[in-house]
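Teaching assistant here, posting this on the class forum so everyone can see the example we discussed in section. The complex has two components, and the goal was to see what a joint structure prediction looks like when all of them are supplied at once.
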Amino acid sequence: MKRVLSIGIFCLGLLALSVQPSLAESSPLSAFDSLSGSLSIAGGTAHIPVMKEAAKRIMTRNPDISITVAGGGSGVGVQKVGEGLVDIGNTGRPISAQEKEKYGLLSYAFAIDGVGLAVHPDNPVGDLSSDQVQAVFAGEITSWKELGGPDRAINLYTRDEASGTRKVFWKKALDKGPIAVKANVVPSNGAMKVAISRDKAAIGYLSIGHMDDSISRVAIKGVLPTQENAIDGSYTVLRKLYMNTKGEPIPLAQAFIEYVQSPAGAEIVSESGFIPLGK
Amino acid sequence: MPRSKERIIIIYAWGCALATLVVIASLCAFLLVQGSSALSPSLFFGEAPVWPALMGNVPVWEGIWPACVGTLTLVFLATGISLPLGLGCGLYLALMATGRTKDVCSILINQLASIPSIIMGLFGFALILFLRKTFFPQANTCLLLAASCMAVLILPYIVRSTQNAVQAIPLSQRLIGPSLGLTLGQNIVHIILPQAGKGILGGVILAVGRAAEDTAVILLTGVVANSGLPQGLLGSFEALPFTIYFLAAEFRTPQDLLVGFGTCLVLLLLTSSLFALAHLIQRGLHRQWS
């Protein structure tokens, strides 16, 4: 182990001499070399892939660090970090004023998650106005014919009340309008994608990072839900993903947050289907 | 009863049994078709070398091996906590409790059986918050907490099956022991438990299955997405149901979903082998006692 380390350091030294003026910048992970101990993270399910990958890279670099990532949802994330059970609590929504007050939380946004409308690939409908979207989800428009599609009844798909994805869609695309009671409730982005790709009459909403060829994107007011449109600001149905700490973070949590917000972290964020958000 | 009615009842019973079998068989077939292609060493160990990973010497990042060990540990712990309690409670209700006490206990057990598992998880979470504020400021969610909450969740199955199995023993047989001068304790060990063993086993199997599959209880009390093999009672752990839940919710590629189905299949195989083990233990004990 020592030999490997010394060879590693020697190589890094060579690298630093040849490429860069200082050793500290030779790897985005070098901030963790002097740290050890454990870091616990809990909260939003959508955050888990990003957190897990970051943890994997950090722990591979420095085995003295142990990072655990748990789920539970945004509410659990707030409560666990607020009560001191974990070091970082993840939320898919901003911390409310009450939560901030009660626990003294600090928030660090690190990614943007767009939420878009999707239909079955065979469905010709590809662009809806805001009013049409609201009328469809309120259950006032019930046939694809009224939207320029085939003569077929519309099957609505929505997410459960606890979903952050539902919240942002309801707020920003439906203008807090009603969602019909007859809408089918699915538990996750994955389930939504499967449901829409198998139902020719379906319409539903899901995270843009989850969209692929198995479904067809629907533009709202002429703007398609794509990562590019979310980045340049033309597509506005978005939410931010946050890491939260109780007061100032411990050194390891601080390093972790900085790593996720760094260019190296941005790569992980992109791979997980979100839009990175620098500091 | 006229003949035609007899016939209808027989056909109905046969039909129901057949329908149940068809449902179970098609469920297993579905999982096999969907998940069997995912069954490979890489499903368990990801990119890690197999032997060192099996022993926990190298961390497993993309495999479900730590989750298998976590689920097994959880099931053994939860059943280990719950079985002595449940057995004792069931024996008390069947042999010693009378009148009002028995009624109150029965109502309480039924209440416990009707508590949704997420409530049990919230209870465990609240318990930890309470402990942090009072006796143990260092308390945190962990394997022991998850196993304890799970033990409470599966307790009614064991209590009820023990009680019913003991009460099903004919009175004449129950009285043989005492009539020959056996004490209550000797009677329980040598006569009642061997007779009731099969019935109790049924409850244990239900309990084990429940402990292996429940996600809601462990979600708030200590399960994590990455921790390697369980690091003792006070550490966090991974579990198969949470892995399945997480993959089903967040899968991005068909490959992810395939791993999810593979994990379902592994969970099914794991519980089946636990049932077989329970069966063997029961048979062994039966021989020993009688």
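For the discussion questions: The interface with chain B takes residues 40, 42, 45-46, 48-49, 51-52, 55-56, 59-60, 67-72, 76, 83-85, 187-191, 209-210, 212, 272-273 of chain A (CB under 8 Å). Residues 12 and 18 of chain A are 10 Å apart (CA to CA). Think about how each of these relates to the inputs above.
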